[in-house]
UniProtKB/TrEMBL annotation:
It comes from Candidatus Manganitrophus noduliformans. This is DUF302 domain-containing protein. PANTHER family: SLR5037 PROTEIN. It comes from the Bacteria. Signal peptide: none annotated. Residues 38-100 form the DUF302 domain.
Length: 131
């Protein structure tokens, strides 16, 4: 597991198509549902008629954590849900989750920090479980 400044990442030795349901199931085990799926490859082809590698953005949400964050900071909805990306690179599949502590630190509301910390811990477990 590798942590970037704003994300938590791992590389899998499974095909992209197999990784997506694995990621979705791992998120579910940590209380996250996938609210949105954006197939970037298909969207770029459709809108720009350009080729792009396999790449999907999963908008993951843990309802309890989202509720806590929203009741402490109404505008935090601009930073939700937690995005998880799955993409191909050099024949491998990469999975990267947004680091909620990094993303929500811009809010500057101390009441949000514990929610961000818990969300980060859960997403880190998701990424670790895939390795």
């Amino acid at each position: 597991m590798k942590r970037q400044e704003y994300g938590i990442r791992t590389t899998l030795n499974v095909p992209y198509e197999e990784a997506i349901p694995r990621v979705t199931e791992a998120l579910k085990k940590e209380g996250f549902g996938v609210l949105t799926e954006i197939n970037v490859k298909e969207t770029i082809k459709k809108k720009l008629d350009k080729e792009f590698p396999k790449y999907i953005i999963l908008g993951a949400c843990n309802p309890q954590l989202a509720y806590q964050a929203l009741t402490n900071e109404t505008e935090i909805g601009l930073l939700l849900p937690c995005n998880v990306i799955v993409y191909e690179r050099e024949g491998k599949t990469v999975v990267s989750a947004q680091d909620p502590e990094a993303a929500l630190s811009v809010v500057g509301n101390p009441a949000v920090a514990p929610v961000a910390k818990e969300a980060r811990e859960r997403l880190a477990r998701v990424i670790q479980s895939l390795s």
